[in-house]
Amino acid sequence: FRQRFPQIDLNLIVDYSKYHDVRVDNQFATDTLVPDVVQLQTLHDFTRWKRQGLLLHYKPAGFGKLHKKFRDPDGAWVAGMVIAFSYLYDVAAAGADAPQSPLDLVDPRWKGAIASSYPHDDDAVLYLYALYAQTYGWDWIADFAAQQPQFARGSFSPGTAVTNKEKIIGVGTGGSPLITTPNRWMMPDGHPFVGWGQRIAILKQAANPTAAKLYLNWQLSTERQTSNSWSVRTDIAPPTGLKPIWEYPNANVDGFPRFMEDRAQVERLKQTFALYFGEVKGDPTPGWPGLHPGA
């Protein structure tokens, strides 16, 4: 964005979505709002903020080309990109016995060789593990815990552990099926993974609404949408070998937004996985940005 619009002063604040959303809520409550745009994994916040009348309804260029799952009909929010979570492995280290589905992750040969992000620290990872429990049973979860996986905060951490040759397999992390070396990210047929549209909205009280609108138009532009494995637009075909993300039933594109809306279920599952994997440990990887980062 800075390269495309060098005259625009963009200040991007990175934090876990579960802290960003309550930070925005607190800024509303104290009349100290900082951001113009929010771009978060916590999909349920966008439907709530819309009900509360806090979002600017705006339909950027290409709005009509967005898949219906990736746009609010009134323009309160749009999805700017597709993100998918599954597992990956080091191709060279895994060799001929590489795990071809999540079922293989509990094979004894991978004991001590797995890194994972905490499912009870990230709702998208939580949903992935919930799908594993639903598909393979809670005994699979117990068997996975017996593999002594290395847990860390942040969905990037499994990929980092594999890339750094600390572990062979990483679970609960993003990736692209187009990249097959040195690590291969998996979405095997008939087995669950998680795909969703990362939502973006302009806050109604935004101090810089014109620049915010420009940002949304840039995110949805064909230039930007052709740079990813999947597009949120129906008029941009994915790279050769892939279907649009909404054509993969095992991506659970409909399931994740429903899951995020049921906060009571989310909390129960977080505590359940803490029983299997232990409490979340470690400082948040972005640090502690505080109440008003970017102000």
Topology record:
Elements: H1 17-29, E1 37-40, H2 43-51, E2 55-56, E3 78-90, H3 91-94, E4 114-117, H4 123-136, H5 138-145, E5 150-152, H6 157-163, E6 169-174, E7 183-186, E8 194-203, H7 209-220, H8 222-225, H9 255-261, H10 263-277
Parallel strand pairs: 4-5, 4-6
Antiparallel strand pairs: 1-8, 2-8, 3-6, 3-7, 3-8
Helix pairs in contact: 4-5, 4-10
What do you see in this structure?
This protein has 295 residues and is α+β, with helices and mostly antiparallel strands. It has a domain at 17-82 and 195-251: 3-Layer(aba) Sandwich (D-Maltodextrin-Binding Protein, domain 2). It is built from ten helices and eight strands. It has helices spanning 17-29, 43-51, 91-94, 123-136, 138-145, 157-163, 209-220, 222-225, 255-261, 263-277; strands at residues 37-40, 55-56, 78-90, 114-117, 150-152, 169-174, 183-186, 194-203. Strands 1, 2, 3, 4, 5, 6, 7 and 8 form an eight-stranded mixed beta sheet that branches. Helix 4 (123-136) packs across helix 5 (138-145) and helix 4 (123-136) crosses helix 10. The model has no long low-confidence stretch (mean pLDDT 96).
Could you provide a short overview of the structure?
The chain is α+β, with helices and mostly antiparallel strands.
Poorly predicted regions: none
Element order: H for helix, E for strand: HEHEEHEHHEHEEEHHHH
Give the radius of gyration.
Answer: 19 Å
> How many individual β-strands?
8
Identify the CATH architecture of one domain. Answer: 3-Layer(aba) Sandwich
CATH topology of one domain: D-Maltodextrin-Binding Protein, domain 2
Annotated CATH homologous superfamily of one domain: Periplasmic binding protein-like II
